Amino acid sequence: MPTAAVDRPGADEPKPLIEAANRLTDRLPGYRVEIIDGMLTVAPLRDGPHADALTTVMLPLLAAGLSDGDSEVEVLQGIGLWLPGGPEDYAVPDLSIVDADFDDHLIENNCYDPACFRLVLEVTSENHRTDLRHKVTAYAQAKIPVYVIVDRKHGRVHVLTEPLPAGYDRHEVYAPGQQAPLPASIGAEVSLDVDEIVRAGSPKR
């Protein structure tokens, strides 16, 4: 689990990209606005199967006792993550597991220091290339210990661990019929049922 606070070059300088991002957030409620590697991105409203896949992922995490009030971690959706790639970079993962004292790690713009994140998870939509490429580098540079991708396009679950400056050293891919084990460092022993998650994330008609 990372302990060092994120480096914030130019923390006191004007942030025009963040200002633009916040304006878009106000004008497009429900859309996800992020700045990755200095590029402002806007993701459209997610569909029902996206939400269903996310719920299906959350259930075993909660069943394992994470986020139960006595746990040292919280399971949260849509929490802002400050990124070290640029002075305005931030992301909003679909789901995160963070230290229970995450409120003490607020940086700015409702985003939190990556040092308090144990896992981030993305369920792909139309922006699957961002989740499978750009965010791999961004989250690794932020030293997020575990990055999980529910790849709805290809029907797989990716578990990436051991962050390096350019990506993750370990990248395991799991198909339906398999269990995707998560590192115990998230706060409990949990495996994800890939078949259940992929079915939940598939179109219902």
Automatic annotation (TrEMBL):
Which keywords appear in this protein's UniProt record, sorted alphabetically?
Endonuclease, Hydrolase, Nuclease
Name all Putative restriction endonuclease domain ranges.
27-194
- SUPFAM superfamilies (alphabetical): Restriction endonuclease-like (SSF52980)
What's the superkingdom here? Bacteria
CDD domains attached to this UniProt entry? DUF820-like
MF annotations from Gene Ontology: endonuclease activity
Which InterPro entries does the UniProt entry name for this protein?
Nuclease_put_TT1808, Restrct_endonuc-II-like, Uma2
Q: What name goes with this protein?
A: Uma2 family endonuclease
